[in-house]
Automatic annotation (TrEMBL):
<keyword id="KW-0805">Transcription regulation</keyword>
<dbReference type="GO" id="GO:0003677">
    <property type="term" value="F:DNA binding"/>
</dbReference>
<keyword id="KW-0804">Transcription</keyword>
<feature type="domain" description="HTH bat-type">
    <location>
        <begin position="158"/>
        <end position="209"/>
    </location>
</feature>
<protein>
    <submittedName>
        <fullName>DNA-binding protein</fullName>
    </submittedName>
</protein>
<dbReference type="Pfam" id="PF04967">
    <property type="entry name" value="HTH_10"/>
</dbReference>
<keyword id="KW-0238">DNA-binding</keyword>
<dbReference type="InterPro" id="IPR007050">
    <property type="entry name" value="HTH_bacterioopsin"/>
</dbReference>
Length: 221
């Protein structure tokens, strides 16, 4: 069996945060994949770049896919981490991907649509995502797909510790939305501290992206 890394483009007005990005077209939205979300809180974290956070937040208030939101911290001028709660109107692809044992490695808007980089255990698992898109009138395009040996059978630039951490996080439900496990749960299973577990996951995800997207000149961490 070969794993795949796929880059897809999805577009629909009810995909979470689409209305906000339309209101503030200069903003850039990226998911914070390693954030230790409390699975009971229903909060999701994103890294936002904007020249006018007031305009961005005005968009949030009129976005039917967003309930409560909070600017958690400003990391530097024009950049901040936000937490969001989704409404029932939001179309969310991550549960569909999780149900196919996949993981969203990156999510970024391009002004009108979303570019998702996802890992899945096999190419046929993409069918679930395409079925969901068709049922919900979501425009979906496959931009790129890479096949490589299974995560359990190749290093892909991963250390043994990084591979183990990623597999434990996947099995416990850490990558699902809403999460079924916290970073603390992953750390407990690995018998290490939360900061150490978070570091392994961040570096492991980075190595998977580098390996699958073809940047083989970059050295491992």
């Amino acid at each position: 069996m070969t794993d795949i890394k796929a880059v897809i483009r999805v577009e629909h007005p009810d995909i979470v945060l689409t209305e906000t990005v339309t209101h503030d077209p200069g903003s850039t939205v990226r998911s914070v994949s390693e954030a230790g979300t409390d699975p009971t809180s229903g909060k999701f974290f994103y890294h936002i770049e904007s020249s006018d956070f007031q305009q961005f937040e005005d968009g949030l208030r009129n976005d039917s896919t967003i309930g409560e939101f909070e600017r958690v911290i400003e990391t530097r001028a024009g950049e901040a981490i936000y937490s969001f709660e989704y409404t029932d109107e939001a179309k969310i692809l991550s549960p569909v991907i999780s149900a196919a044992n996949g993981v969203i490695l990156d999510m970024e808007n391009d002004g009108s649509a979303w570019i998702l980089t996802i890992w899945m255990p096999e190419r046929t698992a993409l069918a679930r995502l395409w079925d969901y898109a068709q049922e919900n009138d979501i425009d979906i395009d496959l931009l790129r797909v890479n096949e490589y040996a299974s995560l359990g059978n190749t290093d892909a630039g991963l250390t043994d510790s990084q591979r183990e951490a990623l597999l434990v996080a996947l099995e416990t439900g850490y990558f699902e939305e809403p999460r079924n496990a916290t970073l603390g749960d992953v750390a407990a299973d690995l018998d290490i501290s939360q900061p150490a577990a978070g570091g392994l996951l961040r570096r492991g995800i980075r190595r998977l992206i580098i390996s699958s997207l073809g940047d083989h000149d970059e050295q491992p961490d």
